[in-house]
Amino acid sequence: MLIALMREKTVNRHSKTLDGGGICPRRASCADLPLPENPARPNQVFKHWVVGGALMRILTRLYKLVRPHVPAHIRDEFAIVAADLLRAQGRLMFFGFLVSIPVGIAAASENAGPFIGVGLPLLLAAICVVGLGITLRDSTPHEKLASSQSLLTKTWIWCSILSVMATTWAIASWATAPAETRIYYPLIMIVGALTMGYCLASIRHAALCALFLMIVPLAIMLFSTGDRMDAAAGTAFLIAGVFQLFMLDRHHALLVELLEHKAEARTLSRLDPLTGLLNRRAFLDDGYVMGAQGDAMRLMLVDIDNFKAVNDRYGHDKGDEVLRRVAQLMLSHARGDVAVARIGGEEFALLGSKAQLDAAVALQLVEEVRSTAMPHGDVLTVSVGVAEGSITDEPSWRRVYETADRALYVAKREGRDQVQTGQCPPLEDAAQVTGDAKSTSRAA
């Protein structure tokens, strides 16, 4: 009973509040209150969601057009290639514009005034001369990336200025020309805009900027007259600009794809296809780079003992599995900047600074290979030759390599399954070392 009275008081209090506010015309419980009916609201929400999503997609697409994606691993090479293309095409563009300046002066409207008729064309000619100077300057090999990036930025700035001034000339000449001749100025400009867009295709943001600054103002100008033919010309200009955008997008995609394939081919050319380690050529090339840091280097040459017997008894497929297993063991010791390579049939190598490649790694490798279960089900052993020294040039790199090769031969001769360390000879003995190394390699 008490609970019923409390519920009634609560409902009456709520009804009074609603009555006083003019929301509910009668006393009612909350359950009796009608819900606000607005069937159009779900449709509005859906429309807002669709329009907002479409707008975001358009904005994302525009952002990708202005700032196209370039993968990080080819970004530097992309800048260099884009600059090379720009040098070739930019020279023709600036030279063509420079040659056309007298034509622009002769075609200027008589009522345009001296600044529009002569002053602006001469300023355009000066910008073309600056652009020619920028694109004719070749970069030095050691500064190629920095000079390429600088060229792309400078060309973008100067072409944007050129676009603004050329558009100003066209609009001013159009506005002051007689009705029967003024359509020629937008036609002259659209040719220049499409030419610039093509020549700047390697730097797409610059091409888009130039197309926008030259085509959009001209189209707005033509639409503003209210004339049917002017509107048709403005529409044609915009359509040509849109087609140019798709061409620029396709050009960028093809260039990125080409550079990615080139980078992939370059990577594959450095790797051994069976084990995925560096091949001999890449290993020798990297030795110069690693030694140029000035640290004392340690080289380990690892050769599988009696590997021919493995191939003969178990087959080459099983031998390939053994090689891959040994490569995995080698990779487990490649910490920091240590390079691992397969430099021959069953011969591997480790190269690193003495601080990163500890001398104990050689003994660890011998023990790990001996104790690891191999794919062919038999015990496998390796011999290791170690050499230490500085690698500052080709002769010093050759001395270190041949010293390790001789140490490896000694390990083979002394019974295999062991480590031998050689001492690098002085520079004047390099010729004798080379001959000895070749004979010992043949004997091994």
From TrEMBL:
PROSITE patterns: GGDEF. It comes from Qipengyuania marisflavi. GO terms for molecular function: diguanylate cyclase activity. The keyword Transmembrane helix applies. Residues 295-424 form the GGDEF domain. GO terms for biological process: cell adhesion involved in single-species biofilm formation; negative regulation of bacterial-type flagellum-dependent cell motility. Pfam families: GGDEF. This is diguanylate cyclase. Residues 414-444 are annotated as: Disordered. Keywords: Membrane, Transmembrane, Transmembrane helix.
